[in-house]
Structures are given as C-alpha cells and as structure tokens.
C-alpha cells in the first residue's frame, strides 16, 4: 500500500473534511491509516473478519485481532450525493458515497474518487487510496481498479 | 384477564402542515385534547402516557407540561417506528392491568424551526465511533436510502419509474386531503424530472418536512363499550432492528427489519398479508415503501417494482396504502409513526373521507426508523380476533 496523500487545496469559503474523533477502540485502525495500511478485525478462532471494531467476534464471541487487508474490494452499492449543505462537502459535489465489500469480507462506507460519477458501477473492483484528514488519521478512499 | 383486550378508542391529528405560531408542546396538547375528545374521555381519565422525542426524559417533560402523573410511562425511541412500539407497549400494559387509559401524543414544529433542508441535510452524527459514516463521507439521510434503492435496482431490475409510481399514488391521495402539504397531482415524468438529491432519488422521492402532531388513546375492551367510538383492536404487534445509523452495518441493504417483525406481528394477529384491507406504511422515501411491501410479505423480494404499478396502492386498488397522502405529500413532521395509526383507525371506523376503503376490517400500520434501521408492525382490526 502507498503512503497517504495530502488533501487537495480548499476552494475559498470551504471547510476541510471532518476528521474522526479517535478513541482507544478505533486507534489501531487510524494509526495504520497514516502508514497507508487498511486494517480490520479478524477472529483467530473462527476466521471471521469484521469492521467496524467490536469487543469480540460477532460470530463466535472470541477475542479479535487487527489484521492488514489487501485494500481491494468491489462496490456493493453507491449513490451520487448532489445535495449536502455542509461547507465541508459542498465543494466536493457531486460526491460518490459507496459501500465497498473488501475482498476479505467486511463492508465499509467510503467515497469513490478519481473518476466521474457516471463511470461508477455496482460490482466494479476498487482499490483503497488514503488521503490525510488530520495529524492522526487518513481516510480510506477508493478508486476504480 | 377478561374484558382487558386493548383497543384504540381515540385518534386525532393536530392542525398541519405549517404551525408558525405554536410551540412543539402546544402541538402535542392540541392533538392530545382532540384524541381524548374523540374518545369521549378527558385528561383526568389518563393513567398512562407515551411519546418519543429527540431528547432524553422527553415524555417526562410532556407529563409535566400536560399535568399528567401516569402509572405507565414510556419514551422508547427507535426513530420513525417508535409510535408503533409505544402502542405495542401500551396495549401490553393495559392487558396486564398496569393502567386503564393510555394517551400517546406526538408533536413537532420542524418546518417552522429548521426550514426545509433537514431531510437532505449534512452529517447527523459526530465523526467518531460506529455512527461516523455520514460525517466522514459526506453521506446524508437521503443518501443512505439511495444506497438501498441503487442496490435494489441493480439486483432486481427495479426502475426509477416504479419508485416514482409510489410518489404519484401518495399525491393522488393527498389531492382529497384538504390539510395535505402538497395537493396538486403529479405524474411519473414529474418525479423523474424533479431535482436529483442522491441518485437514484429525486426530491419527489423524498418525504416533505412539516409541522404537525397526532395522538391516540388506548383503553380496555370493557371500558370501550361506554365510549364514543367503535373500538379498534390491537390484534398483533412486533418490532425489530437490523443495524443503527451506519447503513454499512445492514446485513442485506435490500432486506429491512420488516422481514422479521412483519411476519411475527401477522402471526400474533392470526392473519396473513392477504387479509389486509388497508396499509399505512412509513414513506420517508419511495424506496422505504417498496422495501416494506416486500418484507411484510405483500409480494416476494424483488417484485416490489412491478407490484406498485397499475395503481395497486390507490384507495380503489388491491392494497390501499397511505390513503391520507402519506409523508410523501401530506405531512412528515420529523417522525410520522403516529399518523400511520390515526389513518389506519379512521379507515377501520369508516371515517376516512373520500379515500375510504369500503368495509375495511383489518389495517396494518408499519413504521420504519433511522436509516432503514428499525421496523415496527401493528395489526389493527374491527374485531379482536
């Protein structure tokens, strides 16, 4: 995986994207993001993978461990947001919000970047690309593979 | 206990959809007063109270405002499906002998307070923890439902025209509701030509934002014999959840919690979907209706698109749905659950006006809350079983 890229310059009047509030449970996920690594939880007992982080495996209740995944997945669904009054997002419209199924299993919400919204399709393969959002976190965005 | 079967004996809506001179509590009070009067009861008869709002101890505040000291108090909040759950709980409390007369009220001045942007608005949660989805990714409330609609189209071939058919039907019903927020008839082409908000949903696929409130009163079958209106029995109820506010945690985005609570409520009521004369279903968005129809078992999964075609949901169709115009056209004041109950009861009493379904005996009210997160189904009937 590659190192996070800085966010693009902001147009006048726009605000930066919101950064996550990081607590102990999520800290490994965001720490890895700064290194360009996507990590999710895996259960060493039954092999189930899950995101977001939980106290235990949702299948067998065993303790879970963080594990790096490939960053590859497919689009389960998406929408093109054409209206969002927030100054953090208004300048990014139309914005593709997607649910991506990682090859390793878990589904996460993200944005599809680097292509026109019309090119996005359900089932399309995608690859993670990290973008810095604060000193402590980079957002796992995805682009068409 | 004999004679303690719970039934709804009073219903009312407040004035709506625009109440710039009323406080939220005044809207509650107006709806509550009218529902009690409809039943032939007064505040002094009330010994149970329930409501759901957006703040903790909300029902407690309403008790203070209305001057109530109930022995059954409930403010369960599972979003837009809350009021169906509150009726389920109220019926159980009455049948267990906890209380005799439960008042449920809802009130909102969302339109006057917040303007018209809320439904399509920005982040609804702080960007931390599991609820971070909207805030981090620029997703909106409409966006979450749009994700479900897009997937349904992909998986089952559902079209924007079919979703639009739902909005057209609700507007058709609203044309005869003098209180409805929008009453001019619309066509499928109008819906498709309206402003895209979050693909594939257009602004006419989205509910309106209104001021308004509604209320209902439950008591025992025995007490109902001495009251003004014919009782409407709570024959069965159930609720369920699939996930919370982050729709990425929904196991299958095309299957809502209605698939769990619908069949359970029907079984408890001893009915099947074929027995339902009238449906009131939460129509936050057109896709909400389509998913609910499938998951409640009115058609099979994936067939919702063709099911809603040909006027099937019209008051003179095979499954009359949201005969007051629904949240898509008549009134959507933040949470619409109580309005579903009021319209269902009016239909069962034969008091629904121009969209009355002749001889309606069984009505289902199904609420959906959050981001397709929760569901609650009520089966109501003119007879107890």
Write the SSE topology:
The complex is a heterodimer of chains A (145) and B (385).
Chain A (H helix, E strand, L loop, with lengths): L26 H8 L4 E4 L6 E2 L14 E4 L3 E10 L13 E8 L4 E5 L13 E8 L5 E7 L1
Antiparallel strand pairs in A: 1-2, 1-3, 4-5, 4-7, 5-6, 7-8
Chain B lengths: L5 E8 L10 H16 L8 E3 L7 H9 L5 E3 L7 H14 L6 E7 L1 H5 L18 H5 L3 H16 L3 H15 L13 H6 L2 E3 L2 E2 L9 E9 H4 L7 E10 L16 H12 L8 E4 L4 H10 L8 H4 L18 H5 L6 H13 L12 E8 L4 E8 L4
Strand content of chain B: 15-25%
The H/E string of chain A reads HEEEEEEEE
Going by CATH, the homologous superfamily of the largest domain in chain B would be Thiolase/Chalcone synthase
Low-confidence stretches of chain A: none
Molecular shape of chain A: globular
Order of secondary-structure elements of chain B: EHEHEHEHHHHHEEEHEHEHHHHEE
Integer count of domains of chain B? 2
Mean pLDDT of chain B: 94
Count of DSSP-assigned helices of chain A: 1
